[in-house]
Amino acid sequence: xxxxxxxxTRDANALKQQGRIGExxxxxxxxxxxxxxxxxxxxxxxxxxxxxxxHVDAERVAAMAMQGGLDAPETWLVRARARxxxxxxxxxxxxxxxxxxxxxxxGAARMELSQMIWMRTGERAAALSIFDPPAGAAAPVExxxxxxxxxxxxxxxxxxxxxxxxxxxxxxxELPAELRAPMLAFAAQLAAQTGDAAQAVALxxxxxxxxxxxxxxxxxxxxxxxLAAGAYEK
Length: 234
Known about the structure:
Number of strands: 0
Order of helices and strands: HHHHHHHHHHHHH
Shape: globular
Radius of gyration: 21 Å
Oligomer: single chain
Largest sheet: none
């Protein structure tokens, strides 16, 4: 009895989550064999190839998904990563920007494109410009892009500049807790990194207070802050 596309996708996703990527690819391949016209099945297989480091097949199958009518930012991101892995940096640049155009708040695409520009050219302004918000961006999107820009600054070994950018962001009480909590946690890590343990403790405590119970990011930031402050028992 043939399994449905939904069943195959569920089983493959479960294998992927378990780190059994080779087995997952086999199931995704079966999903494509049974549903050759399904752009979604092709996308899933392309993404799995990318996770396995098979960039050539990831690009090939993602292109097939697009030929089948899929124009999702996630598929453009698969192609961007595949192109980057193949050493086609121009193609990767185009694909990353296509992913961003289809979803301006696409943090993974923006961050990876910025890092690619920085590592290949060392052009700081060009790398940071990737986080410029689109015209008319909503406040949470604008704040999220500034948060990503601060992460890029830390990647460039500019922790002080990243913290300066984060301070006004974490003070914006109107931002939703699911955005503000990781911002506070990141700002706390920057404060600890730059030698201000007291600020790190205060920021991380606020992150833990507003985060979902058990959220590991704020808890990790609080541990780092307490260690920086010498509060080992806490």
